Amino acid sequence: MRGPMLADDATLRRLLAGIARGEADRLAELYDVSSPKLYGLILRIQRDRGLAEDVLQDVYMRIWQAAGSYRPEAGPPLPWLITIARNRAIDSVRRKAEVQGPELDSGEDWVDLLIDPHDEAGAFQDRNALVACLGRLEPSHRDCVVLAYCEGRSREELAARFDRPVNTIKTWLHRALGALKTCLETVS
Amino acid sequence: MSGTRAPDPDDPDLRAAEYVLGTLDAQERAAMEGEAARDPVARARIQAWERRLGPLAMVIPVETPPPHVRAALLRRLPAAGRAELHQIEALRSQLRRWRVAAGGAGLLAAGLALVLTLGPWQRPSDGRYLAVVQGGGTLPALIVRVDTRTGVAMVRPVSAEAPADRSLEVWYVGAQGPRPLGLVGTAASQMRLPAGAAPDGVIAVSVEPPGGSPTGQPTGPVVYTGKLIAD
């Protein structure tokens, strides 16, 4: 599962600055260091590989156009890239009218992975706080949050998985998110 | 406390949270994005949730994409290196080709892969020309009306979008190379054509620092182009 090491923040910032000046070579470099991470994220959400590849290409075109709006003082560059990738991937699955296939069990325990020490997690400082606060949630509520975030599951898919009405899932999500916010404010 | 009372489903912070989580439907997502574009408070709520949930993104395993994606991406970009010069050169040679074979289609010159819909070349009538200036989208970016007798170009933005903290500058690219016309504003504006502007030129739009190119030549990527056709 280990892929190439991601570049450090300073490198990513330098590449984004070059892209903002219209330097295509810098975009190619950024692609080389960041596409395994972004493609991994996209593929968990958009499971159709052909569509996931289209999303990946769109993500880098978006980065090409938007690099000038990246503000280093607003935060590190990797989360900025991840946000673009997740948003595009979620857009691509939400645009589809029908619900994705029923195979819901990816077998991954995302929370366990989060607890494992992980090199790249340093990009976000509040990992431990998130682990602690997720641990305090009702397990089914927590699973909804994690499956939605990591795998792009819709409310309808979660309703099918947990055999509950969509409105109940909505309430679970709201409860969980509200509790997470309160917990993160006290822990960190 | 939060576990006993049902949360208010209209709470704007919960909508921002669900936006980041990804559980809003397509319509709700679009509404949230519209709100974020107008309202810095909504934007800040979204960013706060991106930070809170962000550590989860780091646990997802990497996966190397197939090589053809990289190749396709790079084909959509201008030639490596001195991108803007390549673009202008490409526009110029495109212009030369157009002069030979009027009415061609398919321009791959500018910063983005561009698909131009060209009207049939018409005999210049009374000095009035029109350029539908397009990027990759379905809507034209700008409509430029040119009157070569009065030397005035009327530039009407339709869907042109400048990146944050950048200006869009309009260029007339003729045999002498690019000449600045002016900056794209939010409303239609009149711009003066360079002396000797001929109707077989190309209108191009580049991304520039605020206030326009400091050099008098395009310095950023060319994002839209269009050819003048008889009006």
UniProtKB/TrEMBL annotation, chain A:
Q: Which domain of life is it from?
A: Bacteria
RNA polymerase sigma-70 region domain spans which residues? 31-97
Keywords of the record = DNA-binding, Sigma factor, Transcription, Transcription regulation
- Keyword Transcription regulation present in the record's keywords: the answer is yes
Q: Does the keyword Transcription regulation apply?
A: yes
PROSITE patterns tied to this protein: SIGMA70_ECF (PS01063)
User: What molecular function terms (GO) are annotated for this protein?
Assistant: DNA binding; sigma factor activity
A Pfam family found in this protein is Sigma70_r2
Q: Which residues form the RNA polymerase sigma factor 70 region 4 type domain?
A: 128-180
Checking InterPro entries in the record gives:
RNA_pol_sigma-70-like, RNA_pol_sigma-70_dom, RNA_pol_sigma70_ECF_CS, RNA_pol_sigma70_r2, RNA_pol_sigma70_r4_t2, RNA_pol_sigma_r2, RNA_pol_sigma_r3/r4-like, WH-like_DNA-bd_sf
Q: Name one GO biological process term.
A: DNA-templated transcription initiation
The family classification in the record reads: Belongs to the sigma-70 factor family. ECF subfamily.
Protein name per UniProt? RNA polymerase sigma factor
Tell me which species this is from.
Methylobacterium phyllosphaerae
Please spell out the taxonomic lineage of the organism that makes this protein: Bacteria, Pseudomonadati, Pseudomonadota, Alphaproteobacteria, Hyphomicrobiales
UniProtKB/TrEMBL annotation, chain B:
Which ranges does the record mark as transmembrane? Answer: 100-121
Q: Pfam families given for it? A: RskA_C
Which positions fall inside the Anti-sigma K factor RskA C-terminal domain?
109-222
> Which InterPro entries does its entry note?
Anti-sigma-K/W_factor, RskA_C
Q: Which keywords belong to this entry?
A: Membrane, Transmembrane, Transmembrane helix
Coiled-coil intervals: none
Top-rank lineage group of the source organism: Bacteria
Protein name according to UniProt: Anti-sigma-K factor RskA
Task: List the source organism.
Answer: Methylobacterium fujisawaense
Organism lineage: Bacteria, Pseudomonadati, Pseudomonadota, Alphaproteobacteria, Hyphomicrobiales
